[in-house]
Amino acid sequence: MKRFYSIKAKILLAIACIFFTVCFLVSIVASYIIGAKTYHSDGSTTYSFRKEVFDDAGKAYAVLALSKYDSGFNTDLLNGMNCYYGVIDGAISEDADLNDNSIYLYRNFAGVSVPSWNNELFINSYTVNDKTVFNRSEQFLGMFGAQNSILTDTSRREEVFEVQGIGYDTLGSKAYVYANDRFFALDSFWYGRVMDDYVAEAHNMDSTFSKIWSMNNTNGEEATEENEKLFIAGNAYDPISKSIEDYKLCLNSSYGQKGILDGDYVADLSPIHDTLKDIDSFDAVGTRFTYFNDPPKIRSEVENSQNKRFTFICFPNEAKLSTKGHANDYYAKAKKIVSVAYTIKPFVPIVSIISFVMIWVCFGLFIKAAGHTKQSKKNCGRSV
To answer: What is the spatial distance between Cα 162 and Cα 46, in angstroms, rounded to a whole number?
Structure first.
């Protein structure tokens, strides 16, 4: 033990304690990151580390492609890389057929099957416009602070539009207003169905909408007494009163007014249910009548008219990656990182155990040597 009594030895022991503590903590974190798994409802398992690394590479490819969304999606550059990728107009549902060529604006993998969502496939939807900031970094791992991102201001502003028609979709149980040459879903807080015994002080809006329908009628087919129709943008709809007896629609305005509209003046929009259900649900939040003047107006939050939505997908081109001298792009780097990580994975627990043991050995030696010096040991053996 005498060799540990010197100041230099104690400093080395302290450094050793710190070193093995760091090794232990790093090995624990590495073991968690590399070995983490995600269990899916279909019974499949994904190694989260591998998925995260390849997803970070996918984000980098998305930046490259969409930074040229108005000029060919950077095909000249990306087609020389180790990725299959495709760009879809708008957002898609999770059950969409990604092998259907008709949904793509562009893709470079015709005849190649798209892997499952839980595998190496990267898929994400983006909103872009002429003020979007595309951040690109050669180093792509987000866990190390790399910035590969698409930043777009998606905030909405309130606007007021003159009402051009109103209808109700019985299949979706939702009311819609046609204004500014498009349908707006009304916020359900601001309307409801009422019966004849509704409050007497509610404003009757039949005459107001009668004028609107009369004006619309000049743009479409003429209505007949036998088959009265309500026209929106030149398209004829039956009134909701033909399918629901004694239907009345209650409308609430921003200023506390209540209005009642007879079913004869509410269009039955169920024939276009499939079109209406695709309206962004966020559009309905807060959409309501401002006041019931002539003509009535609605207030709604709308997004930037310059916004474009794209869904970007990509996955590794294994044929290119296996070729000698392939491009050292994001997928090549991702594959190398994952390969190294899984090579050292078996040794991580061993390092963790050894580090833990050495922490206590060094700490024990340090504590034992802390109260001694070489000089004090010599003095203990000197006679008085």
So the answer is: 52
β pairing state of 203-204 and 258-262: parallel
Cα separation, 318 vs 312, in Å, equals 19
Cβ-based neighbours of 3, under 8 Å, separated by 6 or more? 9
How would DSSP label each residue in 116-159? PTTTT-EEEEEEE-TT-EEE--SS--GGGT---EEE-----EEE
* Helix spans in the chain (H): 7-35, 48-66, 75-78, 206-217, 273-276, 318-321, 330-344, 348-370, 374-380
* Spatial contact of 212 and 267, defined as CB atoms under 8 Å apart: no
Does this model's pTM top 0.70?
no
Give pLDDT tens digits for 136-189.
887 777 655 567 888 888 877 888 999 999 999 989 888 999 998 889 988 888
Query: Residue 314: which residues within 8 A CB-CB, separation 6 or more?
Result: 58, 61, 62, 83, 84, 85, 86, 121, 122
Picking from 246, 250, 270, the residue whose alpha carbon sits closest to that of residue 261 is 250
